[in-house]
Amino acid sequence: MSYSLIIVAGFLFAIRGSRQAFSQRPVPSFFWIWREATDLFLTLGLIAALFTVTASFAGCRGFVREYAVLLTGATAYLLTRYQKKSDFFFFFVIALASTPLSVREDFFYNLSWVWVASVGVALFQTGFLGLRYKLLFSSVPEPVKGWPVFCLLAAFVSLALWGLGRYVF
Amino acid sequence: MKLPESLFSRSVLAYLPLMAYAFDPPRACQTALLITAVSWISLLFFWFTRRFFPERFLKEAFFLWLLVWGQIVWTLAELEPLWLLSVFFLTPLSFMEKEKRASRARVFSKEVLRYFWERAVAGFGFILFVLIVTGAQKGLEFGGRGISFQQPAVLFLLIAVLASFWKNQPFRR
Questions:
Q1: Domains of chain A: which residue ranges?
Q2: How far apart, in whole angstroms, are the C-alpha atoms of residue B125 and residue B102?
Q3: Where do the domains of chain B lie?
Q4: ipTM of the predicted structure?
Q5: A94, A98, A144 ranked by CB distance to B164: nearest
Q6: How far apart are CA B130 and CA A48, in angstroms?
Q7: Spatial distance between the Cα atoms of B173 and B170, rounded to a whole number of angstroms
Q8: pLDDT band at B3, cuts 50/70/90?
Q9: d(CA A5, CA B28)
């Protein structure tokens, strides 16, 4: 599930994360993608740290574990609004943060997952938006324009990343 | 009959978060039903109660509502909250935004029927899309001897084929 989650996050960020992907002439901004990935890493890392610190108090542990989604979600919402991020960012922060927290409470495990997820999302976007940009200069047949070609590109990029993912997952 | 283009886009977008659960087709179908039910309940609840919330906090209330649903499902079924994103795609927030036409419609008006009909079709379209993808997935696996769907790439290829069929349907020519 972890690998699929990263691919889905990368794809949705690429097609709905910025206005550039919407416009007819998108300019894939390498800097923008990696800055978003850094923000994602820092936000998720902060949530993981807060979760670990709060869960380390014996009195809070049960409460924090039981209401993990609500607490993670509330923290993610505040952090997302503070950074003026999109609603997608908020939902993916919840999804990506809840995945390791549901497995174990080890902070370094969570941090390594967060790092892998952020880099994976950024790599996917880099590959996808780069290929999408190149497609603007090729004659794509009308019947496959739009969703079909987007999904084909996503399939190719996710296959390429699977090679790297094998060493991680 | 010509169906709106947005129906397919909405279904694909709502299905994408579900792809993370797609290695388990029965669970994906159950989650699709849950997503549709929660999106309809959310729409009904917020359409009729939106006037009671301060305008500034309406969107915040909606997100809090989704978080509460996420927590309930997490407690009962241990389902990771990624499905909330599908609900978000199926429940457009246009009726909460001041500048949009839907937000100016009266709570009890003729607009309600049209609006709810569109949302109902979107929900059924999404369920149908999940059933088609899951059915194709089961069919192509041949009981473990065919294509493996552990890879998201295979699902993307399947969606590309479906999208191509949708885009080139005879009704659109």
A1: 2-165
A2: 22
A3: 5-167
A4: 0.82
A5: A144
A6: 33
A7: 6
A8: very low
A9: 14
